């Protein structure tokens, strides 16, 4: 039997966030690093098509991985953690029921995954020691199927959060181009370290052209700040993971240290101006990626931007700006210490 641990709402939330952050990294990093490479190598061998399919499919496991790691954060045993992973997946929206059967459609709504993981942990802890010899039979039914069903029923309402944010961002596209580029850049720079999917937002609102380019550049601006800050306090592997696309692993840091958005927003403003000046364009499918897999830069080149302009907009300005912004807010104004970028991995 577990020794019941008294948790405050803050501690409870931090554990859910820590498990979620690690689950996202584990689920998405393989495709972020290797997906584009394997797809490019498909003409050179059938094995690369299989490898591309494998790393892409691994993403669909993200909700389950999050649930398991959230359970481990609360020191639940392996069986309990796996059941919480099942509940998180079932309530995630990562699959759709069609006439042909169950079809995987993405990683689901991360906000819903977090809520269901937290609820599943609560129910599991509540039932601890009360089911006796029937635990193996009843826990999967009550927590896995039961809480998973609650997740599915909640999903349309929780998804309204993403829809509402998307509609708000969509109003920026009606503004003067420079203002639009700056505001979209800032919005996506913050969203990328929140539970909201930037890819889902980009596709949902159909953002394209300069707006999509500014969104991708804004995500890059956030990446640059996190990389510069992370390298001071984290191991090189953590910083590399952020650079390669695992920005959402810093969600707990956003909650614990909200001032982390200050350098991110300032750098996003600079980068948004860069996106406007160098006329970076994109499509809805690339708006939410930034430099992950070089999706944003490659799309800009495909849409007619010169290579040197893409390098300026996606690398020189965001990363150069990140260095300047970090010096300004850390050393000159002393608004934050680099400890706010410290990543605390999920542990058992």
Provide a descriptive summary of the structure in words.
It is a multi-pass membrane protein. One of its GO terms (molecular function) is protein-N(PI)-phosphohistidine-sugar phosphotransferase activity. It holds the Pfam family PTS_EIIC_2. This protein is mostly helical and 348 residues long. It has two domains: 9-158, no CATH class; 173-341, no CATH class. It is 69% helix and 2% strand. It has helices at 9-41, 46-58, 62-73, 78-90, 110-127, 135-172, 177-191, 198-205, 210-233, 236-243, 251-256, 261-277, 295-302, 307-332, and strands at 95-98, 101-104. The chain has a two-stranded antiparallel ribbon with strand order 1-2. Helix 1 crosses helix 5 (110-127) and helix 13 (295-302) runs antiparallel to helix 14. The longest helix has 38 residues, at 135-172. It is globular. The mean pLDDT is 90.
Integer average pLDDT: 90
Shape estimate: globular
Count of helix runs: 14
Number of domains: 2
**Structure classification:** mainly alpha
Query: What is the β-strand count?
Result: 2
Instruction: Give the % helix.
Output: 55-70%
Distance N to C terminus: 16 Å
Note poorly predicted spans.
none
| Helix/strand order | HHHHEEHHHHHHHHHH
Adjacency order of strands in the biggest sheet: 1-2
Q: C-alpha Rg, in Å? A: 21 Å
Reported for the largest beta sheet, the result is: 2 strands, antiparallel
The percent range for strand residues is under 5%
């Amino acid at each position: 039997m577990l020794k019941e641990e008294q948790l405050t709402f803050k501690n409870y939330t931090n554990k859910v966030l820590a498990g979620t952050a690690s689950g996202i990294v584990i689920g998405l990093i393989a495709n972020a690093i290797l997906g584009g490479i394997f797809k490019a190598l498909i003409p050179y061998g059938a094995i690369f098509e299989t490898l591309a399919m494998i790393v892409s499919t691994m993403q669909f496991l993200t909700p389950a991985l999050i649930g398991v790691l959230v359970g481990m954060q609360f020191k639940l045993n392996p069986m309990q953690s796996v059941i919480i992973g099942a509940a998180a997946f079932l309530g995630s929206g990562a699959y759709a029921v069609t006439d042909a059967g169950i079809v995987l459609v993405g990683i689901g709504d991360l906000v819903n995954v977090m809520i269901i993981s937290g609820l599943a942990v609560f129910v599991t802890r509540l039932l601890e020691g009360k089911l006796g010899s029937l635990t193996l039979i009843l826990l999967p039914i009550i927590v896995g199927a039961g809480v998973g069903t609650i997740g599915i029923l909640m999903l349309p309402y929780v998804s309204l959060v993403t829809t509402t944010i998307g509609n708000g961002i969509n109003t920026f596209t009606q503004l003067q181009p420079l203002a639009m580029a700056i505001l979209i850049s800032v919005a996506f720079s913050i969203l990328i370290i929140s539970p909201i999917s930037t890819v889902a937002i980009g596709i949902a609102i159909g953002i394209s052209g300069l707006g999509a380019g500014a969104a991708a550049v804004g995500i890059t601006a956030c990446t640059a700040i996190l990389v510069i800050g992370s390298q001071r306090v984290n191991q090189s592997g953590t910083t590399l993971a952020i650079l390669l696309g695992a920005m959402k692993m810093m969600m707990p840091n956003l909650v614990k240290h909200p001032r982390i958005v200050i350098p991110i927003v300032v750098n996003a403003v600079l980068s948004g101006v860069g996106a406007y000046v160098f006329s970076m364009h994109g499509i809805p499918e690339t708006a939410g990626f930034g430099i992950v897999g070089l999706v944003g830069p490659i799309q800009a080149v495909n849409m007619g931007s010169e290579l040197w302009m893409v390098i300026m907009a996606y690398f020189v300005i965001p990363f150069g700006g990140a260095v300047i912004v970090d010096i300004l807010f850390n050393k000159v104004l002393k608004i934050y210490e680099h400890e706010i970028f410290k990543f605390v991995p999920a542990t058992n």
